[in-house]
Amino acid sequence: MTPFRAWPDPRPPGLPPPTASAPYADELRRLIIAHKENARYALARPLGGVLATTVLSALGEGRGVWLCPVPSARRTVRQRGHDPLRRITKAAVRTLRRQGIDARLADALRLVRRPDDQAGLSAERRTANLAGAFAARSRWAERLTDQPVLLVDDVITTGSTLAEACRALESDRIPVLGCAVIAATRRYSASGS
């Protein structure tokens, strides 16, 4: 897999540069769903390896990074029996550290309002649905000031979730370098235009 810039089309305002490892299709799609929905915990390690490759591409020449996963609703985590993205992010951190990158997990976001289900919503409706859904955890503001921070998620569709998460961090003066995701749906423009 060769990571690529995965700008959604249309691009939501405030979205930092998103990097994905592959299109959300075929075997990768099945692996993400099996880990997320069927609690196939062992898949966190290979998916974390894919995410680590994406992080390296998004990071460029940097040697240190804080990875901030987009949080899931507590109810969703309880229903699944685990927090898939956090598990994958932890695996990515371990992989990156073995490669000499000073990677760390930053649980700097919290969900303050549970948005409606996003399935079937247009890009504009997703943006409206997510407005104000996230907030930065204040104890992270000082720690992450002037640090390289990447938002991470499993899949980027319209980019609305990542744009809102970025807004929440930056409103607390936590600058976001970019986004790293495992996969991108076909709603992207690889050219970045």
Quick summary:
This protein is α/β, with parallel strands linked by helices and 193 residues long.
pLDDT under 50 segments (min length 5)? none
Q: DSSP strand (E) fraction?
A: 15-25%
CATH top level class name: Alpha Beta
Strand order of the largest sheet: 1-3-9-8-4-5
Fold-level CATH name = Rossmann fold
> In total, how many beta strands?
10
Biggest beta sheet summary: 6 strands, mixed
Structural class assignment: alpha/beta
State the share of residues found in helices, binned by percent.
25-40%
Mean pLDDT: 86
Number of helices: 7
Query: Rg to the nearest angstrom?
Result: 15 Å
Q: Supply the CATH architecture.
A: 3-Layer(aba) Sandwich
Along the chain, the helix and strand elements come as: EEEHHEHHEEHEHEHEE
Tally of discrete structural domains: 1
